[in-house]
Amino acid sequence: MMNKKLILFLLIIIGAFSSDKIYAQEKKTDQNSDSNQEILKRFQAFFDATAERDSRKMVEYIYPKLFELVPKETLIQSMDKANENSEMNIVIRDSKIGEISSEITIDEIKYAIIPYSFLLVMEEKEKKISEEEDEKNNMDALDFVKQIFQGRHGEENVFYDKKAGRLEVNIITKAIAVKENATSEWTFIEYKPKGPILEIIPKEILEKAAPAAKSCKECESFKDALVQPEIVTSLIISRYLQGVKLDEFPKSIGQLKNLKILYLTGHSFTSVPKEIGNLQKLEELSLAECPLTSLPEEIFTLTNLKELLFYEHNFSEKYLEEIKIKFREKMPKTKVEFE
Q1: Are 202 and 311 within one domain?
Q2: Which of 14, 23, 29 is nearest to 211 (CA)?
Q3: Is residue 34 scored above 80 in pLDDT?
Q4: Which of 17, 32, 122, 307 has the lowest CB atom count within 10 Å?
Q5: Where among 209, 235, 254 does a domain terminate?
Q6: Which range is least confidently modeled, 184-188, 193-197, 253-257, 328-332?
Q7: What residues make up the domain containing 81?
Q8: Average pLDDT, the chain
Q9: Residue 234: which CATH number?
Q10: What pLDDT is attached to residue 126?
Q11: pLDDT on residue 6
Q12: Domain count along the chain
């Protein structure tokens, strides 16, 4: 078992520093305009407060409309809680700001897009040599987080020294700068394709900031997975990790014929498309915390499945007994868990 307290803390860090594979430009910012100078100065101050983990100072630079959705004190308390972790040192350094976009004005509010990068370093504060099992738990936790960061940022941007208990992640992302009127200061909000930002930033700005879909072997969105479906071996989309909630299970899943791992957890779809039968190489499937009411017959043809999870389903008692019998008869080597 992994150290649950440490895992919870690390998941908070992942949520705070997620980029969804947005790539900053290598060209350095050309600070010719007064507005770019102003944005750069304010954003650097914001980043410095973040690196210092000064929660109250940080919120001074956050776009105030966010606090209409997430109370300021709640946000401060969440950040302070993460900062109080006693088992891990977190360092943010080597920040680089890319080319700031030209201003975009919508309804008299000015916006600009800021590509930037930084190095996130996570390291155990001390080794627990005399407590070997506890030490193993902590290392398992970092290894778990390493895999998530690799999926989000690419293996080439994640460096893990298991012996030293040290994880380094080169995070490349974007922020959106906002200036509401002539007398206000520039404030910022991290670009994310989902979540509260959709309610407070115009669609036109989000579209300009959004990355193009990119091919991947280990994917975290259907959009990326379908760029080159034949190379995809893993697709993990979680409501908790990516903040994405699927109302429907896309039929396009059938195109991922070399998929071995499929985790769709915490979504609201109630059925699975028959196209899942195309995934004959699938070995692990999790549809946990999805209110499923039925399954297609094609799922019983996935004979390479080693593990299948249906936690918190919505099957009727009668239907559940029927499919349990089918799984035993048609997929006897598959470990199927319903609760």
Answers
A1: no
A2: 23
A3: no
A4: 32
A5: 209
A6: 193-197
A7: 4-209
A8: 83
A9: 3.80.10.10
A10: 67
A11: 54
A12: 2
Residue 74 is encoded by which pair of tokens?
């709640």
Residue 137: is its pLDDT beyond 70?
Answer: no
3-state SS, the chain, equals CCCHHHHHHHHHHHHHCCCCCCCCCCCCCCCCCHHHHHHHHHHHHHHHHHHCCCHHHHHHHECHHHHHCCCHHHHHHHHHHHHCCCCEEEEEEEEEECCCCCCEEECCEEEEEEEEEEEEEEEECCCCCCCHHHHHHHHHHHHHHHHHHHHHHCHHHEEEECCCCEEEEEEEEEEEEEECCCCCCCEEEECCCCCCHHHHCCHHHHHHHCCCCCCCCEECCHHHHCCCHHHCCEEEEECCCCCCCCCCCCHHHHHCCCCCEEEEECCCCCCCCHHHHHCCCCCEEECCCCCCCCCCHHHHHCCCCCEEECCCCCCCHHHHHHHHHHHHHHCCCCEEECC
Contact assessment for residue 104 and residue 67, using Cβ atoms and an 8 Å cutoff: no
CATH of residue 116: 3.10.450
My answer on whether 68 and 121 are in the same domain is yes
Determine the pLDDT at residue 52: 84
Position 168, amino acid: E
| Rounded CA separation 50/19 (Å) | 16
User: Is the model's pLDDT at 27 over the cut of 80?
Assistant: no
Say yes or no: 199 and 235 in one domain: no
The letter for the amino acid at 135 is: E
The terminus-to-terminus CA distance of the chain in angstroms comes to 19
Residues 193-216: pLDDT tens digits? 777 788 899 999 988 888 777 788
The model's confidence at residue 147, banded by pLDDT at 50, 70 and 90, is confident
User: How wide is the angle at C-alpha 217 spanned by C-alphas 266 and 224, nearest 5°?
Assistant: 60
